[in-house]
Amino acid sequence: MAITKTNQLLKRMFDLVTAIILLIIFSPLMLLIAFAIKVTSPGEVIFKQERLGRHGRVFYLLKFRSMVKNAVSMGSGMLLEENDTRITPVGKFLRKTSLDELPQLINVLKGEMSIVGPRPAPVFHLPKYDAEQRRRLLVKPGITGWAQVNGRVALYWPQRIELDLWYLDHYSLWLDLLILFKTVLTIFDKKSSTARPDRKDVDPFMKY
Known about the structure:
With 208 residues, the chain is mainly alpha-helical. The protein has one domain (5-197). Helices cover 39% and strands 10% of the residues. The chain has 6 helices and 4 strands, in the order H-E-E-H-H-E-E-H-H-H. The chain has helices at residues 5-40, 89-97, 104-109, 157-169, 173-186, 204-207, and strands at 46-52, 58-64, 114-116, 142-144. The strands form 2 sheets. Strands 1-2 form a two-stranded antiparallel ribbon. A two-stranded parallel ribbon has the order 3-4.
């Protein structure tokens, strides 16, 4: 594995510095987003969901709520469809710009996530991983990652896992910086922002 203990320490320092700087820069915008969510739809401002962290430890992923209250109990559940009616007007803008991910900077400060890494998978994925796929759990999940700048949720999960494993095997600080640069470009790519399932009842592990 390419990420040594020294690399992990440097990566953690990079995460802390970057997260603090970004929180300072975006704090006024985050307050504005929180206000917009609160006054336009009932429900909490921050959406919390259990996800898999490093070594399979479960933590609560934080996001600005972009869907109606109790959306996971409606329609296609955890699956997101194109033009999903559960997404609020404010939520559409947040998802298009990826601003709904900003609260995850708090996850980074808490040491649950990294700025760059494999996206944190839902808990129900764990029993479905084979030995090779479980390697993606050897590092902290990230706000953005190699899979996100090479297709995002438009990829099948096995494809995303392959890209995550490539990232683990080729890790460097320069690669992280490249991913951050490409993330800015990818945010505005509509083709990569929404998955398009062939069937509504497809297994999300195989499709997303």
